[in-house]
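Hi,

Apologies if this is the wrong queue. I'm a grad student, and the batch job for Threonine synthase from Asticcacaulis taihuensis produced an output file that my downstream script rejects. I'm not sure whether the problem is my script or the file. Here is the sequence I used:
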Amino acid sequence: MNYIGTRGFREPRTFAGALLDGLAPDGGLYVPETYPTPSFDLTAASAGDYGLLTEKLLTLFGVDVLGAEAVQKAAARTKAAFLNDAGKTPLVQVEDNLWILELWHGPTLAFKDMAMQMIAPLTDAALAQTGEKLTLVTATSGDTGAAAVRAFAGSEHVKLVVFHPLGRVSPVQRLQMTTVEADNVLNIGVEGDFDDCQRMVKRLLGEEELKQNGLISSVNSINWGRLLGQVPYYLAAAAASGAEKPEFVVPTGNFGDAFAGWVGRKIGGNVGHIHAAVNRNDALAQAINTGHYVRHQAVETASVSMDVQAPSNFERLVFEASNRSAEGTKGVFDNFNATGNVHLSGDLQDALRAQVTASTISEEETAQTIKYAHDKWGKVICPHTAVAIAAALKRNDGQPIIALSTAHAAKFPDFVTKALGFAPEVPEAIQKLHGHKETIHSIRNDEFAALEAVKAFAHG
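Support response: The file is valid. Your script probably expects a header line. Output copied below for reference.
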């Protein structure tokens, strides 16, 4: 199994190479050279042990170049992050043909834990093979950074730099990043939004000055290894529902989680249509629904982890929907990066909508859905989950739908309290955060300042 780039890079990379690169050398994103066909019974594996399913999928996508032990360790960690307290797939049926998949049972109470707990041992295994050190840079709107810090803190092979937009993550998300005491972790607060942070990360990955002094990569969902860790739960949830090809409604910002569902369907899994639910930052939905892909300044919403106006993984969808046209994909994203305003062709629009649909959910609808979920089902949900459920309820015409619940409500107490009239119960993992010293290195919204901060940390 080899990997190529969405913009034309064709020198095959193994999984280890794609993992440590993060981005392809030409700025594109890695995808499999061809999508594999399982040699095992995928339906049976999806209904079986989650750890074994994960092992089989990792091997299918070439992760075994890192050795069987690395695959087993990664699968065990993602299994531990995924299953609920009873050790079962956390799928809850709330109405006829409507389920909620709770993806927040991991150490930081967010869906990012599954992939991040998996990618950390795989990264260590890849570096152990080469004897090299790695600087990881990641942008976060809250949950990615917290999950990455938890997964990589204390690593002997990795230095981790996390960029987050100052004042634009929830207080709990911030504490989960900034109270972890680890010499190999640097938290940087940027005077900007998530898209500014993500732009900095992409620029840093292409900096020759950094590359000359050691490996540099990312654990955002631009990294194929991150995305791969999210594929198993689509297959497991579909099997647990007992439904035939259930639709998945995914609350999304950077589109990585939704694309992982697309991959599960692509390899023959029992995964139906993928619907992306977004908040007011709806560049993705506008691109899919109208063909106009326009970059606006992100606005702050209750579902802060989705406050994204330039979703990186949209590039993978465009590549696949355009029949893997690297030239066409490069043209779209070179133009978007230069102008922030691209009109997609009619053929591409049709192809995109055949793969994924999307809808926008307002702040008012988000609050109303939080109240609906509690009044109707006795469930206290986070704003991101509410975005997905609001979209799912609009689409529920009798077909089976699984809505993804991506974080614990206690990570966003202010909005949830306002919607319900009472505060969500606070888990012990969050209670323990308060009172600890925070460490944040603040910088202006400037790519040179970001480069200087990373250079000083990586080589200090």
